[in-house]
């Protein structure tokens, strides 16, 4: 018995019967020989961490654009915080930690520069619109590895696709692990964005909804602690009643939802960052228009996508992969005059 098989045996003994067992994976599009040390989900985690798209997350905005402080979250630090929250919840429930980790690390690979402002700009350039979760799937299935993709397992791809949104009507992941990541994403970003907003002077603790704070706690760490423990306890209660889903209790879930709504109205779409959002959209729109008019300037891989899938698709794929810094540099290279000495 090799090391991977020992890990798979440990999964059978230690995990909940509702966990996604590595041995029972729905597999990959292209079949591969199994690794002798790592389970299939461990392999997926490693492929994501070593991808170019993952490295670019360090220069993609979470909420605050081009800040001078090193202490604000980026898309990369957000991803790591989601992973840690999700792993804690999955261990508490008895789910597959390696699957949760792989989904967490890959869930935002398709996010655009300049946070959700970038997503808004790209919305109008594709017939079916642009969603970062769908773009994340496209990254791992097609764009990474020189156009070959990462050939991840179906469970990881499903979890990445299903992580977005918070409505009860949204399609849920087929695995409980994927559902854990969906909740962990919200738990992480609502709380760390409050922390960053207070640091930036855009928000004060006293302005947070008092009824929500009464339920969740009056500090960042207390709120995360409340949400994580509630998710573990509520989900175990569900599973014991044969209700196979991840959830928060009604009171805690409503409190998180209200806090999330508050952040959207007060920070994400609020007046304080309006001018910065306009600048970001201006840059993105102009870079997009340039490449739509000059597709011959695209890198070779994206030229091939233009030929096979159309101009908008190829240009959007290229723009969506840009970090904030790279996008600003492209704008400067295209539109800002250079000094010429005669």
Automatic annotation (TrEMBL):
InterPro entries (alphabetical): Diverse_Catalytic_Enzymes, dNTPase_2, HD/PDEase_dom, HD_domain, PHydrolase_assoc_dom
A Pfam family matched in the record: HD
GO-annotated molecular function: triphosphoric monoester hydrolase activity
Keyword list, A-Z: Hydrolase
Entry-linked SUPFAM superfamilies: HD-domain/PDEase-like
Domain (HD) ranges: 75-190
Family matches, as PANTHER family: BIS(5'-NUCLEOSYL)-TETRAPHOSPHATASE, SYMMETRICAL (PTHR35795:SF1), SLR1885 PROTEIN (PTHR35795)
Protein family (similarity comment): Belongs to the dGTPase family. Type 2 subfamily.
Official protein name in the record: Deoxyguanosinetriphosphate triphosphohydrolase-like protein
Source organism per UniProt: Clostridium cavendishii DSM 21758
């Amino acid at each position: 018995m090799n090391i991977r098989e020992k890990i798979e045996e440990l999964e059978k003994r230690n995990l909940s019967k509702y966990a996604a067992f590595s041995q029972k994976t729905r597999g990959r599009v292209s079949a591969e020989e199994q690794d002798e040390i790592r389970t299939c989900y461990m392999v997926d985690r490693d492929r994501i961490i070593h991808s170019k798209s993952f490295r670019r997350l360090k220069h993609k905005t979470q909420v605050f654009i081009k800040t001078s402080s090193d202490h604000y979250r980026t898309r990369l630090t957000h991803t790591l915080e989601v992973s840690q929250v999700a792993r804690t919840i999955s261990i508490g429930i008895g789910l597959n930690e390696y699957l949760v980790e792989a989904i967490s690390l890959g869930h935002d690979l398709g996010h655009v520069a300049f946070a959700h402002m970038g997503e808004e700009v790209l919305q109008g350039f594709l017939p079916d619109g642009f969603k970062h979760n769908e773009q994340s799937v496209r990254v791992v299935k097609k764009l990474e590895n020189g156009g070959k993709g990462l050939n991840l397992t179906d469970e990881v791809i499903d979890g990445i696709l299903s992580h977005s949104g918070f409505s009860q009507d949204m399609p849920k992941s087929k695995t409980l692990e994927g559902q854990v990541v969906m909740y962990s994403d919200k738990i992480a970003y609502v709380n760390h964005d409050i922390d960053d907003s207070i640091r930036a002077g855009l928000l004060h603790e006293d302005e947070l909804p008092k009824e929500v704070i009464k339920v969740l706690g009056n500090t960042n760490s207390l709120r995360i602690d409340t949400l994580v423990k509630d998710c573990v306890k509520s989900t175990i209660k569900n599973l014991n009643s044969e209700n196979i889903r991840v959830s928060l209790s009604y009171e805690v879930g409503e409190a998180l939802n209200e806090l999330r709504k508050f952040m959207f109205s007060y920070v994400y779409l609020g007046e304080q960052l309006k001018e910065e959002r306009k600048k970001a959209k201006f840059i993105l729109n102009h870079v997009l228009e340039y490449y739509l008019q000059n597709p011959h300037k695209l890198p070779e891989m994206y030229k091939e996508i233009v030929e096979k899938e159309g101009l908008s698709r190829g240009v959007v794929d290229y723009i969506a992969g840009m970090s904030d810094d790279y996008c600003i540099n492209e704008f400067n290279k295209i539109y800002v005059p250079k000094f010429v000495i005669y």
